[in-house]
Write a structure and sequence with these properties.
alpha+beta; eleven-stranded antiparallel β-sheet; four-stranded antiparallel β-sheet; 11 helices; 19 strands
Length: 476
C-alpha cells in the first residue's frame, strides 16, 4: 500500500517534470515552426499571404490635402510676409489598382510598375474639387528658375504681363493638384506643354520600374528595392544620399526588432528615408511597433553630418546651415520645389520665419509606420509632407521685382494614410496572431502546470515518506 502510494507520487512528479520540459522545449520548437511558416508566407511569390497583400494594398489608401490660402495677397505681391490659412482636407483614394507588368526574375527579384490613380472622395472632404483659394502662381515663380538668362527673363516678363499673370493666383483644388492650362505659358511662342500642376501629370501614368527582392533565397531582403527605373542610384544627390535604400514602406523584412532602423524609398521626395522605433501600438487587437521619421532625417549637417550630401541650394540654406527643407529641384526638371514636413515641423527659424499662420505639431504632422513585427507588414501608416516653392526677387520680371528676399512659400501639405480594414484584420489575427498566441499560451500552461505538479507531488512524496519513517520508529 505504502509503495503503491509513493510510486504514484513519484510518477506524478515525473509526469509534471516531463510536461514542464516539454513546455520549455516548445519555445525553440515553436520559434522554429513560426520562423518556417513566416519564411514561406512572407516571400513575394504567387500563393503567399505576402504576395496577395503586395499586389494591391490590403487596406484602402487615402491622400488628404490641406491647401494654404493667402490672406493678404496684395501685400505679399508688394514684398510683405504671407499670412496663410489652412483649408482642408480634400481627400482622394489612391493605389487601388494592382501593380502592373509583374515579372519574376531568376536572381530572386520581381519587377513591376506602380499605376498612378487618384479618385476624389467628396464624403471625406470639406468641399468640392472646384473650391478655389489664393496661392502661389506655379508657372510665374518657376520660370525665372528655369531660364536665368537676362534677355530670356525680359521676354518672360512680356508674356507674363500680356497674360495678366501675377505672383499669386486663384485656382481650384483640382487645377492645382492635377494640372491646368496656364495663361502665361499659352503666350510663350515655343513648343511646350502648356499645363502645370503640383502632381501633373498623374492619373494614367505609372511610377517605376521597381525591382525588389522577393525573399525566396534570403528572407531578410524581402521587399528591399534592388533598383528604381533600372538604377540603384538617383543621379540627384552625392554619395550615400543618392542610394535607393530599403523597401517602398508597405512592408519590411520579417522579424522586426525595436533596435532596427527601417529604411524606405519615396519617389515623391526623390530620396530614401528612415524610421526609428517610437512606441508599441495596438490596432484592431494586433500588437504593432510604431516607427517614426526622426528630426535628424531633415536636420542640417551641423546637427547630422551625414546629411551634407543633400545640400544643394546656397541662397536659401546659407551654406547648408538651415534645417528641415529639402531642395528636390534636380528631380523636378529644375522647378524650385522644396519638401518639408507640414507647417515646417522641425525646420529652423530661417526657414519658417518668413511665413505667418503655421502651427507645427508633432502629433499632427509627424510621419509614422505601424509595423507588425513578426511578418514585417505595415498595417497602419501616415506619410506627411509639405510641398513648397522657392520664390526669389527677379528684377527683370515685374511680378517678382518687389520681393525683398528669397524664401520658401508653402503650397499644400498632404497626409497619405491607410489602416488595415476589419476583414483583413480578422484574417490576419486568425492566420498569424492567434496561432502565435495559442502556442505561447500552451508553452506557459505546460511549464506552469508541469512545474506545479512536480513540486506538489515531490513535496507529497517526501511528506509521505517522512511520515512512514516516523511510524516505523514508533513501532521499534
Amino acid at each position: 500500500m505504502g509503495c503503491s502510494r509513493n510510486c504514484g507520487l513519484l510518477a506524478g512528479a515525473i509526469i509534471g517534470a516531463l510536461l514542464a520540459i516539454f513546455g520549455g522545449a516548445l519555445i525553440p520548437l515553436g520559434d522554429y515552426f513560426i520562423d518556417k511558416t513566416i519564411r514561406k508566407q512572407d516571400v513575394i511569390e504567387n500563393g503567399t499571404i505576402a504576395y496577395d497583400n503586395w499586389i494591391i494594398p490590403g487596406s484602402p489608401v487615402y491622400r488628404q490635402f490641406w491647401f494654404y490660402d493667402v490672406q493678404n495677397p496684395t501685400e505679399v505681391m508688394n514684398g510683405s510676409r504671407p499670412i496663410l490659412k489652412q483649408i482642408g482636407p480634400y481627400t482622394y483614394r489612391m493605389r487601388y489598382l494592382p501593380k502592373e507588368n509583374i515579372t519574376q526574375h531568376p536572381d530572386y527579384t520581381v519587377s513591376y510598375m506602380l499605376p498612378n490613380i487618384a479618385r476624389f472622395e467628396p464624403d471625406m472632404s470639406v468641399g468640392a474639387e472646384n473650391d478655389t483659394f489664393t496661392c502661389i502662381n506655379l508657372a510665374v515663380v518657376a520660370a525665372p528658375a528655369l531660364y536665368q538668362n537676362a534677355f530670356v527673363q525680359i521676354l518672360l516678363n512680356t508674356w507674363i504681363k500680356s497674360s495678366k499673370s501675377y505672383m499669386l493666383q486663384t485656382r481650384s483644388v483640382k487645377d492645382i493638384l492635377w494640372g491646368y492650362e496656364d495663361p502665361f505659358l499659352k503666350k510663350v511662342p515655343y513648343p511646350m506643354d502648356r499645363k502645370i500642376g503640383v502632381f501633373y501629370p498623374y492619373n494614367g501614368t505609372s511610377d517605376g520600374q521597381y525591382r525588389v527582392f522577393n525573399g525566396k533565397d534570403d528572407i531578410s531582403k524581402t521587399g528591399i528595392i534592388q533598383s528604381y527605373k533600372n538604377k540603384s542610384t538617383l543621379s540627384i544627390w552625392d554619395g550615400q544620399c543618392d542610394m535607393v535604400n530599403g523597401t517602398d514602406g508597405a512592408s519590411f523584412p520579417p522579424f522586426v526588432k525595436k533596435d532596427r532602423i527601417l529604411r524606405f524609398f519615396s519617389s515623391d521626395i526623390c530620396r530614401s528615408i528612415y524610421g526609428i522605433f517610437d512606441s508599441e501600438q495596438i490596432v484592431k487587437e494586433i500588437p504593432l511597433y510604431r516607427f517614426t521619421v526622426p528630426r535628424a532625417a531633415f536636420a542640417s549637417p551641423l546637427e547630422t553630418p551625414e546629411n551634407v550630401c543633400f545640400c544643394t541650394e546656397t541662397v536659401l540654406s546659407k551654406n547648408c546651415t538651415a534645417s528641415g527643407a529639402l531642395d528636390i529641384s534636380a528631380c523636378k526638371e529644375g522647378k524650385p520645389v522644396y519638401i518639408t514636413l507640414p507647417h515646417f515641423l522641425y525646420a529652423s527659424d530661417d526657414v519658417s520665419e518668413d511665413i505667418e499662420g503655421l502651427s507645427p505639431n508633432k502629433d499632427e504632422h509627424e510621419t509614422f509606420l505601424d509595423v507588425e513585427p513578426t511578418t514585417g507588414f505595415t498595417l497602419r501608416f501616415a506619410k506627411k509632407l509639405q510641398i513648397n516653392i522657392l520664390v526669389k526677387p527677379v528684377s527683370k520680371i515685374d511680378a517678382l521685382s518687389k520681393l525683398t528676399k528669397s524664401y520658401i512659400f508653402p503650397v499644400l501639405w498632404l497626409n497619405e494614410t491607410a489602416i488595415i480594414d476589419d476583414e483583413k484584420a480578422t484574417m490576419f489575427r486568425s492566420k498569424v496572431i492567434t496561432p502565435i498566441k495559442l502556442l505561447n499560451l500552451l508553452q506557459v500552461v505546460l511549464i506552469v502546470v508541469g512545474s506545479v505538479m512536480f513540486l506538489v507531488f515531490m513535496v507529497s512524496y517526501f511528506i509521505c515518506r517522512s511520515k512512514k519513517l516516523s511510524d516505523k520508529g514508533v513501532y521499534m
